[in-house]
Amino acid sequence: MCLAVPAQLISINEAIGTVELTGATRDCSLLLVPDAKVGDWLLVHAGFAVQIVDEEEAKATLDAFRELEELEEAYFAGKKENS
């Protein structure tokens, strides 16, 4: 299964962009999204920005990831208590 995560573009150096997600920054290729500009939200997969998305969609996706993380933590906390 492949997963692209939304991240905000904070700087551009030629065809390499720096994106930020939850305080962490990473570099990614912008070759597939040549129209990307600082402030855009991008879907990033395997070091490549693959799509520009609107902020509302990006934030909804990040919220869904947070909910999944909380469910996973609750599940494993319950398993620990029952063992």
Question: How would you describe this structure to a colleague?
Answer:
This protein has one helix spanning 55-81; strands at residues 5-13, 16-21, 24-29, 41-45, 48-53. The chain is of the alpha+beta class and 83 residues long. It has a 5-stranded antiparallel β-sheet, covered by helices on one side. A hairpin with a 2-residue loop joins strand 2 and strand 3 (24-29). It starts with a strand and ends with a helix.
What is the element string, with H for helices and E for strands? EEEEEH
Kindly report the spatial arrangement of strands forming the biggest sheet: 3-2-1-4-5
**Helix content percent band:** 25-40%
Tell me the β content.
35-45%
Net shape? elongated
What characterizes the major β-sheet? Answer: 5 strands, antiparallel
Mean pLDDT: 92
Q: Find the count of extended strands (DSSP E, 2+ residues).
A: 5
Cα gyration radius (Å): 16 Å
How far is it from the N-terminal to the C-terminal residue, by CA? 31 Å
Poorly predicted segments? none
Instruction: Determine the structural class based on helices, strands and strand pairing.
Output: alpha+beta
Q: Helical element count? A: 1
List the helices and strands and how they pair.
Blueprint: E1 5-13, E2 16-21, E3 24-29, E4 41-45, E5 48-53, H1 55-81
Antiparallel strand pairs: 1-2, 1-4, 2-3, 4-5
Task: Provide keyphrases for this structure.
1 helix; 83 residues; five-stranded antiparallel beta sheet; alpha+beta
Concise description?
The chain is α+β, with helices and mostly antiparallel strands and about 80 residues long.
